[in-house]
């Protein structure tokens, strides 16, 4: 084939590329290829690498032999990727003063929005990953958890051979920007070679900040089974010490936790500079100063400033404080070159409690140093409280409507025994009304008294869906409906009318002067039934047909469902993704924990969406469907084809 390929390429260059280059610019009108030769030996392909996700490939030029050592190449890649990952998360600050009068020190002294206290309590019904006799005998797992909040990473202890581990560990993380930031938790089974994945969980911090205190079981994602028990507390940073005694009492009273060092306050320190430091051991040489800071058993150190006795650091530090009435801040300036002390300072934190706004900004004289040696610092103490800080009435959160809100009445898991959710800090406070989207209005006005057109029937081949059963247990309290509607999820296209507008625009492009059929967006086949024995609504997603192509390569469809008005993340159900097809077959069964009288007042929200990769622009809506469940035939069930529309209104049975 090689000679013919050469002729084809030469013809391509002469007849296609040459005229295109000449027509691009008048100065290139005489452009031509004088000779086209790709050789006489055919191209040889030694291997092809295929990736399912984007990976950063790092090659060390000139160090090939060194990186042939087993494990060294992977170790270097891991270290570099970890460094890059820490810069690609919140919080990261780059200070650029735009007004000359603004002090840079104020910009470089960020106060966190809050502190997230994570009680990593226990898990239940995890998957057993350890096997014996080549997989014949299934064993248990050695689970541990990795918790991420921005660039802060915590790892729990490993519980050996236990599918229901109890950790009872507590972690505290700083949150600088909670809109868009999430708590990420991954569970793994520890193995000698490679740890196995046991499930993951992501919780938006806006939800925690609104509810202040969450104590419940969460269903793990990306696995067939498993639940995780968490207690999350959102602690506000208070600039007064009025309720410090109350906070100290509360953290001392909690004696059941493995970590008894709960914090009552946060110390924020801005290390500016030092002046007139001594020369150290050698009189004629300038030192290389660095600063060691410690509160209790926690210590941090600054960067080294070389060859100067007036160093400027401009660095921030934070310390969690257990009892500010009894603890001290210890500061020591050291010479890194000669390993000697240049001065020290001991500041009782009780002095901050007597300062205005619990803040001190001044030059402190160093002990055991020169006569005029000082260090300039700004220090602030903030008391950690579950109570909400008073805000002006016109203050509104920029991301208030983007995520679902948790309710103590609605957050009840069907898992037994149920863990009671602690009440909010101020139950008498009026609850602000959540915005109602267009889809909510259409759902409320839809006719729920008419049953589906097709005759009800229950399929006998549901056993084929048992392998893809998604066991997500969730119950919704009817008392929640009269109090507050949940805020739409940011992942739901109901709260994003842009998705519907883009779909309508795509329909107009497809029509282009022609008349589309009765179902221009295609159809979806569903089986819907309520099981009185299990007290669950069972929905089987069979297949779709005649979907629209989202791109030139087709579509990668999947189905997402909510049981309205519950649009929280925990109430979402999703199928797997079918790659490059307009007629996907899913055959997956899902359930919603809800009683028959309650489900007849609800609406099933179904959306067929196109899956895209990370940061891909090919994500979008393929069609929607809203099914009122006010049918007397719901106990028997039915299987039916439904037409997909742009906004899900007026669903029509097809067969």
From TrEMBL:
Residues 463-477 have a biased composition (Low complexity). Residues 389-488 are annotated as: Disordered. One of its GO terms (biological process) is endocytosis. Signal peptide: none annotated. Keywords: Calcium, Cell membrane, Endocytosis, Endoplasmic reticulum, Lipid transport, Lipid-binding, Membrane, Metal-binding, Repeat, Transmembrane, Transmembrane helix, Transport. GO terms for cellular component: endoplasmic reticulum membrane; plasma membrane. Its main location: membrane. It comes from the Eukaryota. It is a peripheral membrane protein; Multi-pass membrane protein. SUPFAM superfamilies: C2 domain (Calcium/lipid-binding domain, CaLB). Belongs to the extended synaptotagmin family. This is Extended synaptotagmin 2. It comes from Cyanistes caeruleus (Eurasian blue tit).
